[in-house]
Hints:
- By secondary structure, the protein is mainly alpha-helical.
- It has two domains: 5-88, DNA polymerase, domain 1, CATH 1.10.150; 116-277, Orthogonal Bundle (hpI Integrase, Chain A).
- 56% of the residues lie in helices and 3% in strands.
- It contains 14 helices and three strands.
- It has helices at residues 5-17, 23-39, 41-45, 53-63, 69-88, 116-125, 133-141, 145-150, 181-189, 208-222, 229-242, 247-254, 259-266, 271-288, and strands at residues 156-157, 162-165, 175-178.
- The chain has a three-stranded antiparallel beta sheet with strand order 1-2-3, with no helix packed on it.
- A hairpin with a 4-residue loop joins strand 1 and strand 2 (162-165).
- The longest helix is centred in the N-terminal third of the chain and has 20 residues, at 69-88.
- The chain is globular and about 65 Å long.
Amino acid sequence: MNTSLEMWGNTWIKIYIKPSHKPRTVENYRYVLQVLETNAPDIWKESLDEIKEIELQNMLNDMGHHYAKSTLHTLRTVLSQIYKTAIQNKLCITNPAVGLQIPKYAAEKKVEAFSLEEEQLIRDAAPSVYKGDIAIFLLDTGLRSIELEQLEHKDYSSSEHAIHIRNSKTKAGNRWVPLTAEAEEILLRQPTIGPTIFTTSIGTPISKVCLQKLCRRLEAETGVKNIHPHRFRHSFATRLVELGVNVKALSDLLGHTDVSFTMARYVSTEINFLRSQIGLLDGIIQQAC
Length: 289
């Protein structure tokens, strides 16, 4: 019997990915396969050895109008790996995903920092929102959501007033992050129920779903739209740049190895800050006159 992309894709996740990859990676791979199923149900049900490269390329071209390049890159990687393991198991002979191209018109995923006004609304509302102190902690530390979820009491140093990020997605992500006075107060207020610092009401580690629910509560309370965990990290970076932080120090705080990546990906300045910087030029010109 011919094996469909659906059958082998689910088997690939179960046998090759889930046992050896982080839960977030498994979740991302499942997501792009769901995207494929939604947008190309015929291909999803088609036999592995009958799918042609032109079908997959046409699919990516169509999806480029609706999905970001990062999603399409992940989907291409997943398809290529699915076929690689299928060939190893003699389910098909060729890999039609090897030569796939990402359409240039697909959008670049850009996460915008909160404006100063939006950030202040969130800070003002956080004390009255359930688990709202987590939002302030993220704004003051720039942690990835997965780093927050896995942060343990043993990772806090009272003498250094800092936290040690041991579980990160990159080697550079293993770092020390100094705490603001408010972030340290928030950390110390958390009950010691289990090993992790931030927990649910029943003592289980805070999860991605919990953070998403927190974002929805903050949206309802503040009126700020499109709040999601990664915007806190971008806002942390942007505020520090606006304050004149050393860019290498910022890169280290975020757990990056490449300073240029930090500046290109994580920093967006708002118009009021840009206006103030042009004001500096006005001052120099007036002095010269």
